[in-house]
Design brief:
With 249 residues, the protein is mainly beta. Helix content is 7%, strand content 64%. It has a single domain, classed as Beta Barrel (Porin), CATH 2.40.160. The strands form 2 sheets. The protein has an 8-stranded antiparallel beta barrel. A two-stranded antiparallel sheet has the order 10-11. The protein is elongated, with a radius of gyration of 22 Å.
Length: 249
């Protein structure tokens, strides 16, 4: 998997370097590379679900910006992004090789990977010394291509790690993005970029059903001992802050 991704990055780099080798006043396009560490968390709104901490991830990829005017740019590109979060909720424990279900509290860690494409408007100041400041506003779309989870069953004192949870995660996600930062001119069109972006998720990330709960907040079992579910899905949005580091050509 790593070799095809590297080849793709190199090919895009060669193509876009040729297209972007013009002065800002003359060119209509520029290209860049970025790396963005992030801190992500999930906000749950379903009964019995609670936020239970954040998760550190990262993103890397290509940036492409189209000049609408000297200081107004349409910004896009693509990233391979690792996100996640931690939730605590009431569920059931099913021992391997058995059909027995036990109500329990579950602490779950989500490790989610997306292919992301931002669509935003970047507003820049004129260069002040060697620095150009900017604000970035728009949307970010994400396609989930990997979902793993770690489970801690509190009552049974049992853990399960790196379990596939692809069926519990929605395929498509979307964020409202608001960012600020600056670019430091190195030479000619080459500039280093650094900034901070808040990515506010507004689409449900979860695709699993919610357990029926009793008055004590425990998961309810049917007469045959199987879990009883509500006829609706759990709901949680995925949010994150990213530290944006990159270089433009």
């Amino acid at each position: 998997m790593k070799t095809p991704k590297l080849i793709t990055l190199i090919l895009f780099s060669v193509i876009f370097l040729n297209l972007s080798a013009q002065e800002d006043n003359d060119r209509s396009f520029r290209f860049g590379l970025h790396f963005s560490p992030n801190v992500a968390w999930m906000n749950a709104s379903s009964n019995g679900y609670e936020k239970n901490g954040s998760r550190i991830g990262f993103a890397y990829g290509l940036s492409a910006e189209f000049f609408l005017a000297k200081n107004y740019l349409f910004s896009t590109g693509f990233s391979l992004t690792s996100l996640g979060g931690n939730l605590s909720y009431s569920g059931v424990y099913n021992a391997s090789g058995t059909t027995t279900f036990e109500p329990t509290r579950i602490d779950q860690s989500y490790n989610l990977k997306y292919i992301e494409i931002p669509l935003s408007l970047k507003l820049r100041t004129n260069e002040i010394g060697y620095l150009t400041y900017y604000g970035n506003f728009g949307f970010r779309t994400g396609i989930n291509y990997s979902a793993k989870g770690d489970f801690d069953y509190k009552k049974q004192n049992v853990s399960r790690n790196d379990e596939s949870i692809k069926s519990d995660i929605t395929f498509f996600n979307m964020w409202l993005i608001v960012g600020i930062g600056a670019e430091y001119s190195i030479s000619g069109n080459t500039a280093i970029m650094f900034g901070l972006t808040f990515n506010n998720g507004f689409i449900n990330t979860l695709d699993n059903k919610v357990h029926e709960l009793n008055e004590n907040g425990d998961a309810v079992l049917n007469l045959d001992g199987t879990p009883s579910f509500k006829n609706k899905k759990a709901n949680a949005t995925l949010n994150y802050f990213s530290l944006d580091l990159g270089i433009y050509f």
